[in-house]
Amino acid sequence: MAPRATPPSHPGLVVFQPLKRRHCAECRRGSLPLLVVEDGAPRCLDCADLGHLVFLPRGDTALTRRAREESTLSAVVVRFNRRRSRYERQGVLVEEAALARAEQRCLADAEARRRRRVRDARRRAAQDELFAQAFATEIRRLFPGCPPDRARAIAAHASERGSGRVGRSAAGRALTEGAVTSAVVASVRHLDTPYDRLLMSGVPRHEARRRISAAVETVLRGWTEAGLGSAG
To answer: In this protein, which residues make up the domain named DUF2293 (predicted)?
Structure first.
C-alpha cells in the first residue's frame, strides 16, 4: 500500500519517502527508499521514469530554487510525520546536470559576495583611517602639548570599529569637544597614573578615580598650556 493520509498539495510531481517497507507494484523491486503513487499503487522511480533524477536534500533554499529552475523535470520529496500527522518536505529530485549548473551559479554568487565583502572591508578601513586622523587632529587642537604619536594612539583606540568606545558614539563621530576630551582623559588615567594598580588592589572605581584626579588634571593642563606658551 502507498503511504496513508492525504498526499500533500505540492505543485508538480510528488515522491514519497515511505515509513514502512514498500515494493514496486510493477517490477516488484523493494524495499523502496523513494516511491511514486500511481493509481493508488507504489511505483519505484525507474518504473515512474524518474530514476535518472538525483536527490537534493532540503536546507539550501537558493540551491534548491536554482536546481528546479535548471531542471526540465523535477519532483518534491516528502515524508509523513506521524507525530504531527502531516507530510513534510525532505528535498527535491532534479536532473544531475541541472544540479551541477545550479551549484555553479551558487558558487559564482558566493565568490561575488566574497569580493563584495573584501571591497566593503577595504572601504570601511579607509573610512576608519580618515576618521582616526581627524580625531587625532582634534586632540592636538585641544591639547597641543600631547605628543603626536600619543594623539594618534588615543584616536585609534577610541575610534576602533565595534569597540563601543567614545569615538564610536554619536558625539565621538561628530568630534565634539566633550567626546574627544573623554578619550584623552581615559588614556591619561590608564597610562599616566596608578589607576589600574589601584583597581587591581581592590580600590573601588570611584575612589580610585578620586585619588588620581589631580594627576590627570596635571597632565591635561601641561598638554593645554604647552600650546598657549608657543602661541604667546
So the answer is: 138-223
Q: Return the pLDDT at 5.
A: 52
Detail the DSSP E strand segments found in the chain: 13-16, 36-38, 41-43, 53-57, 75-81, 86-95
Joined grid coordinates for residue 223: 598638554
Q: What are phi and psi of 31, to 5 degrees?
A: -75, 150
Contact (CB, 8 A) for 42 and 59: no
Query: Residue 40 belongs to what H/E stretch?
Result: none
Whether 198 has a pLDDT exceeding 90, the answer reads: yes
What is the C-alpha end-to-end distance of the chain, expressed in Å? 101
pLDDT at 10 exceeding the cut of 60 = no
CA distances from 8 to 81, 128, 187 (A): 12, 54, 66
CB 44 within 8 A of CB 29: yes
